[in-house]
Amino acid sequence: MTTVELFPAPSHAPSLHAPARLPGADDASTKALLDVLKDNHERWHIFFNDMRFHNHVSHHVLAIWALGANKDLIEAAYKHDVPMQKPAIQPPEAITESNFNEHLSDEKYYVAYVNFFKAQLAEKGVSQVLEDWVFARNANIVDGAPQDKQPAMLARLLDGLVHPMIHTGYGLEFGLPGMVVEGLAQAAVHRALDAPFFPPALFEPVSTLDTLSSKIDTELVLDEPASPHVKPKKEVHVFDIIARILKDDKFKAPPDAENFYTETKERHSATIVDYANQWTLNLDEPHDVHRKIEQLQWMNSLFYGISGFNAKEKEFFADFFLMHLVTSSLFLPSFVAYLTPPSQKMLLRGYLTISLAWWISRRPRSFNLNVAKFFSADPTMPKEPSFTFDPPKWALVPGATSANQWFPVVQDALLHPDDHLCKVQRAFVHFAETYGTRKGGEEDFAGTELEGAGVVDGSLFIRAAGLTAKNMGRVIGDDEGLGWDR
Prior knowledge:
Distance between the termini: 48 Å
Number of helices: 20
Helix content: 40-55%
Number of strands: 2
Structural class: mainly alpha
């Protein structure tokens, strides 16, 4: 049987729309990274406690490695994260194609699912494994089976605050088969709690022209430059959907404070699916895929940044749940590079549905999207940089305190012990690199139904990143932070 090297040195991302890597990585830091990934793979379970909280070791070290961390930082991050981990469990039996569905949701079989996907990956390759075991109809629906016995693998991939998608996404972006199999195994042992957001119609067969053969033509244009910021006629933008939801009386009453997501799902799943289905997602032109991903990345950044800034409780409400929507959207380009057009549609539609569900569940605070207020504030907020310096008189700007607003943000993200901070700041760095030059008034935003969308510009990302850094505490300035808000 062909074997696959699970943890080779990270390769280039499969898409030019994936994040660039900051300089800093060298042979020593890369060896430290791979040592951590291998040790984590062999020793630890994907959940670190009985509440099914997720093991973030690999996310943490990959995020800081990509931001330029040295060997010492990577080893220190692992040392910090190890004490909370739970040892891997030897499974009662192996997973095969014939018993695959029997042990879904059971964390005792995590290692068995890892071994199953290793074999599948060696035989078929990444693209075909994703198609066969996540996006195929029979990977999601078994005719005649009760709801609680459905495989629902796409729902599982996007369940648990999209952690299986995030984990798999790291593997796809960095060319690490070991993380792909971990992520798919994590999806398999997740409970399919989000299945109501994935109706059977989503998995109905499409034209035979939209199959793997058309993926070749798609790949030829997926990395072309984005089209101008013009909204095509009759297209429903995600901002239109946001505006319509904000006006819907069904969402007037706030959800239960403790079970906000479960209650939102139980009461409103059909309505949320209907809204997600309004999104124009024809993908007739292959390069439209990334135009749609751009919409999702802006949307989730607005949810997190603007509603957090407009919160009444404090200067900035760094919503732990909405933050995951920002970090997960970073991996959409790496996913679509491996998928056929029909599967791309399923992923993007499903991802929009889950993003809307989490945003709606965090109301009423999350509904406070006062766009004008956010963008009328000081664009350098918060004003105090993480570190300052005193340039000599011969410098271009002798009185400057920070030559680049992003440098202190990245330094803080590298040194901060919180494993989520580096992930969300890496996302904002990439979005700023990709969309930072956007000016307000562009037609594709201004022409939507969302009030104030015309003033949205590329400063969104440094604003959100700066507010996040201040809320979490600045390592270099020794400013004690408040942590994530729940």
